[in-house]
Amino acid sequence: MVAGRQDSSLTPSELQARREALGLSQVQLGKYLGIAQATINRYEHGRRRIPDAVVSQLELLEAATVTLTDRMVEMTEAKQGGERLALITYTDDTRFWEQHPEHEGLPAIVHRVAAARARAELATDGIRVIIVADSDTAR
After folding, report:
1. For 100, which DSSP code?
2. What gap in Å lies between CA 94 and CA 99, rounded to an integer?
3. How far apart (Å, rounded) are the C-alpha atoms in residues 135 and 61?
4. Radius of gyration of the chain (CA)
5. Per-residue confidence of the chain (139 residues) as pLDDT tens digits?
């Protein structure tokens, strides 16, 4: 435990860093949590205590990102054959939820962040991957 900090709480800077690592703006995180952007701003500037519910939801977003990344890596590794493969992602929440109803409510940007992480992980193994939007594949 860090001096002056309870194990279950986040510092304002940690909330901001973790939000940014998920690729979310304050507006996007607020929308996901059902609270105003101004409230997120207050949390990140230490003007309001960060509720445990916010910490829990942030952890769920992070876990979903890891799960999506791992799934993309596994699927891509199984398909590799030397050619460049594509990871398909979504430009908006509605399309993401239509294709993946099990993730309804999760912002599509989390899927895009997972795709970028999967691409980077695969690249370290020499697997060439590009990221395309589902709308790009419909053309």
Report:
1. -
2. 9
3. 24
4. 17
5. 344 444 457 999 999 999 999 999 999 999 999 999 999 999 999 999 999 999 999 999 999 999 999 999 998 888 766 667 899 999 999 999 999 999 999 999 999 999 999 999 999 988 889 999 988 765 5
- The pTM of the full predicted model, rounded to 2 decimals, is 0.84
By three-state DSSP, how is residue 132 classified? strand
CATH superfamily of 12-137: Putative cytoplasmic protein (1.10.3100.10)
Distance CA 100, CA 103 (A): 6
Backbone angles phi, psi at 94, to 5 degrees: -60, -45
- The amino acid sitting at 23 is G
**The tokens of 137 are what?**
């594949």
Q: Identify which of 21, 43, 39 has the alpha carbon closest to the alpha carbon of residue 30.
A: 39
**Domain-wise residue ranges, the chain:** 12-137
